[in-house]
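## tool: complex_structure
## caller: assistant
## args:
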Amino acid sequence: MDDLQFRRSIYADPNSADKDIIAAQNADPAKKQFAQEIAQLDQQIKKAMDVDIPEDLYNKLMLKQVLVSHQQQKRKSRIHLALAASIAFVLGISFTFWQSSTPYNDIGALSLAHVAHETMHFADEDHSQAQVSLTSLNEKMADFNAQFSQSFGKLISAGYCNFGGIKSLHLIYQGELGPVTVFVMPNEEGLAFTANFANEKLKGQALHFDHANIVVVGDKNEPLNQWRENIEKNLTWSI
Amino acid sequence: MIKKIIGNKSKAEQVSTSMASKQIRYEALVRALHGDLYRYAYWLCHDKHIAEDLVQETFLRAWRALDSLKDEKAAKSWLITILRRENARRFERKRFDMSEYDEVTIVDTQSLDHEQDMENQLLREKIAKLPEEYREPLVLQVLGGFSGEEIATLLDLNKNTVMTRLFRARNQLKEALDDEPLFRGQYNG
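## result:
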């Protein structure tokens, strides 16, 4: 190893453990002395570089970290709260939808179920005296933008009800063989239209209009066609 | 729902235990390396306060990214990499101020005996006057104890460049000291 290269290597790394460098040092006392000189210089450099560390630096570093991680924690718990709130919100919304969505998928089944449901309460009361006037009927029909030009049959009861999640107008007439129920209900998506339907005791007919459906349900032997014709004849839509 | 809450709770416990172990790791890391890092920062910027800020910022980033540190042996070079990046960012933020090194800002904080003091002070000034590209590898080698290869990786240079710079750094220091009559008190006769 020539002198220049040796010096360069020692300058670059005085503590080099390279075996060529060590061998060169051992072979030549001048090189060894040079190496020691530079090693001494390096000690001085090291001492000079070894500046004092601020006493409280460690504590400051720990404090800062604690503060930051505390903030992070707080942010995290806020996120958790927000998540919980969102979940509760979604649950609430879906519960509402689930409640309001109708379990019936066609208009006939819905109407029959509705009538069956009403009859339980209806049968208990005496309706012989009840009579709803055409005016108050038309007030209610106004919600569906419709009205009857004259009354037909004896209207015992007229009221809104919310059955199976659908708000409809519920009219009960005195029929020949029992109450005849007329529903006026808005066109509902997801509810199939069936013109004729029946079960063991009741039968019904549905009429489709632009703005609403009208369903007539009565006893199996009730002449529903007559009712239907009356409705079609007297009903006028204001839009 | 109840199960979910219980599940969450045990998960929260896991999180808190992992937080605790993270805390322990971090404390050990700070304890072991804050001195080295501070000195490195000091020689990077020659300012006690900026060095302190740099170290704080570095350890904060280290805390956030502690999970990415897999090998504890690599911790030092990992921290130095973060610190160098922080230092570079400082220059992005403000380009004025630090462009010219001012001798007066080098403060000797060590209380050695007078002669030693003078020597140290002198050497510090010389080190501080070294071009940055020579000083940095020197600090890494002398203070950090990194090998030529490690310095090359840290500074993203090839090894020969690093060795040349180390050579020049020491060479310049030696020449500067040899020119200085104060040093070693040889001219006393």
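## assistant note: The beta strands of chain A are 146-148, 154-163, 166-174, 179-186, 196-198, 202-208, 212-219, 235-237. Chain A has a mean pLDDT of 81. Handing back to user.
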